[in-house]
Each structure stands twice: as C-alpha cells, then as structure tokens.
Amino acid sequence: MNASSDMSFFTLIAGASLPVQLVMLILVITSLFSWWYIFIKVATIKRAERDAESFEETFWTGGDLTKLYEGVTAGRRKPQGMASIFEAGFKEYIRHKQQARMEVSDVMEGSRRAMRAAYNREMDDLDAHLPFLASVGSVSPYIGLFGTVWGIMNAFRGLSNVAQATLTQVAPGIAEALVATAIGLFAAIPAVIAYNRFASSVDRLSVRYESFMEEFTNILQRKS
Q1: Number of domains in the chain
Q2: pTM, entire model
C-alpha cells in the first residue's frame, strides 16, 4: 500500500484507536443533529416572519377588530406568532367586557396578561433547539481536542518501543489524532454561525411582538 492511500481520510479514521473513533462518531452524530435542527429553525423562523408581515398588513388596514378576530379563529390552522398574541388578548378583552361592573384597568390588565402568556409561548417555540446549537458550537472543539490528545498520546506511547523514531512512524499517528479536531471544528462552525443568525432573527421577532402588544393595548384602551 502506498503512502498516499495510507494517509487518506478514511484510512486515518479506520486506523485510529477505539476511543478516538468513538469521539469521531459522537461528533458526526452531533453534527447531523445540528444540521437537522438548522433546517427546522430556518423553516420555523421564515414562517414566523412571513406570518408576522401578513398579519401586520391585515391588522393595520384599520378594519373591524371583531371581524379580524373571527377570521383568525375561524382558520383551520391554530393562530401562531402575532396572530396568536392578538387572539389571546382580544379574547380576554371580550370576556371581561361582557362582565358587568368591570373597571377599564382590570380589563386591560387581563388582556395584557393573556397577550404576555401567548408571547411567552411563541418565544419558547422560536427558542427551541437554539441551546443545543450553542452547546454544539462551544463543546465540539473540546471533544475533538480530547480525541486528538488521546491519539497523540497513543502515538508517542507506540514510539517508546522503537529504537529510532522517524517522521514516517510519527506522521500517521498524529494525522489520525488531528482528524478528531477537524471533525470537531466541522461540527462546531456551522452550529455557531446558525446560532448567531437565529438568535438575531428571534430577537427581531421578539421586538416586533412586544411593539405590537403595546400598540394593540393602546388601541384596546381607546376602544374601552
């Protein structure tokens, strides 16, 4: 077998010690999960942004709030995002208004609590899987480094039985060990980039939701 085939990527993985191979397997599985969550988050955030834009366009046309509420609740799909916050707040507003002798402040406080609860649920959905991506981005390089240290340690232990060590004897063992670090970086870099991008998008949606809650509260207060 020639030197080039001995130093190929898959040969290095196959020739690594069992602990290093386990580290590589863990990193590969982690990377696959992170990519799966990345695709899920891309679809989730795009849908949330699209729904927010669509609902804001409808809401600010100045139509009747009761008709808008009926349209939101009549759909087959459960209201999500900004529509869910509107539905929760207006539902609570109607319920309190139907009760006699309710103070305006009590009506508004009930609507605010309902909208805040809906807001928290929506943010929980948007934040889902982000902690996992953050953990992958921060921990994967260290897991890969552990595999590298273990592999280099084994390589030098093997050289202790050799009378004269040469580069040809050292290179394969060190190369096998460094593959673990490379796989760790391969798992970490996309996770870090995705986490930062998604966290920024979630923050922007959070600001839009909170601004809508304040503006909708003012509208309900004037309506009262």
Answers
A1: 1
A2: 0.82
